[in-house]
Amino acid sequence: QVQLVESGGGLVQAGGSLRLSCAASGRIFSINVMGWYRQAPGKERELVATISSSGTANYADSVRGRFAISRDNAKNTVYLQMNSLKPEDTAVYYCNAERVTTTQGVAFKTLDAWGQGTPVTVSS
């Protein structure tokens, strides 16, 4: 019901910047949290940043101060601005959309959608 398409990945030198975009379509009204995850070769997928419907952003310690997540509701798009890139940032970056419904104090995840991913390579 929700489709996510990432773009903006590529090759960049260390210290450079890159902006990733994630365009959502379908039943976008069902989304209340969107985020970016990444997975490097041979490693587990890890959280990079999330942004809630209220605009609250959270970041992994490894990217805090360098990355910024934002959204444009009119365009149904979420962005990840990546600055001061390091070789260890090299990974495939995935867009994620979630909906969590809380009933009587219990949270239920009713939506968990993923994009295909966009690769980011940071050279030294």
Considering the chains and any ligands shown, give keywords for the structure.
single chain; globular; 0% helix; mainly beta; 124 residues; 7-stranded mixed β-sheet
Topology:
Layout: E1 2-7, E2 10-13, E3 18-26, E4 33-39, E5 46-52, E6 57-59, E7 67-72, E8 77-82, E9 91-103, E10 106-114, E11 118-123
Parallel strand pairs: 2-11
Antiparallel strand pairs: 1-3, 3-8, 4-5, 4-9, 5-6, 7-8, 9-10, 9-11
What does the model show?
0% of the residues lie in helices and 61% in strands. It has 124 residues and is mainly beta. The protein contains no helices and eleven strands. Strands 2, 4, 5, 6, 9, 10 and 11 form a seven-stranded mixed β-sheet that branches. It has a four-stranded antiparallel β-sheet with strand order 1-3-8-7, with no helix packed on it.
Strand content: over 45%
The N- and C-terminal alpha carbons lie at a distance of 40 Å
Total strands: 11
Uncertain residue ranges: none
Classify the oligomer.
single chain
The number of helical runs is 0
How helix-rich are the residues, as a percent range?
under 10%
How do the helices and strands follow one another from N- to C-terminus? Answer: EEEEEEEEEEE
Largest sheet, in brief, is:
7 strands, mixed
- Dominant shape: globular
Estimate the mean pLDDT confidence: 94
- Which structural category fits the helices and strands? mainly beta
Measured on Cα atoms, how large is the radius of gyration? 15 Å
